[in-house]
Write a structure and sequence with these properties.
The chain is an alpha+beta fold and 79 residues long. The chain has a single domain, classed as GMP Synthetase, Chain A, domain 3 (2-Layer Sandwich), CATH 3.30.300. Helix content is 43%, strand content 23%. Helix 1 runs antiparallel to helix 3. The longest helix has 17 residues.
Length: 79
């Protein structure tokens, strides 16, 4: 799970103006990993992107990495 958290952290920090405010937390069960990405309010638009394209791309990359671990992953960005 730590690998997925680090990947999400690196991806998000490369997109935002305030990388020090990016936080990733997660919970893990037998076959599932739930990750939560928190960013500064001003950076929320950058992470989500137009029509959600950026967050969709981030989710795709993280899901591809999770296949190697044999886990299903979800990435949420709370308001």
């Amino acid at each position: 799970m730590e690998q997925l958290e680090n990947l999400l952290l690196v991806l998000a920090r490369s997109l935002v103006d305030e990388p020090e405010k990016v936080e990733v937390s997660g919970t893990e069960s037998d076959s599932r990993v739930d990750l939560e990405l928190r960013v500064a309010p001003d950076d929320m638009g950058r992470v989500i992107g137009r029509q959600g394209r950026t967050i969709r791309a981030i989710r795709t990359v993280v899901k591809a990495a999770s296949v190697k671990l044999g886990k299903r992953v979800t990435v949420e960005v709370p308001d």
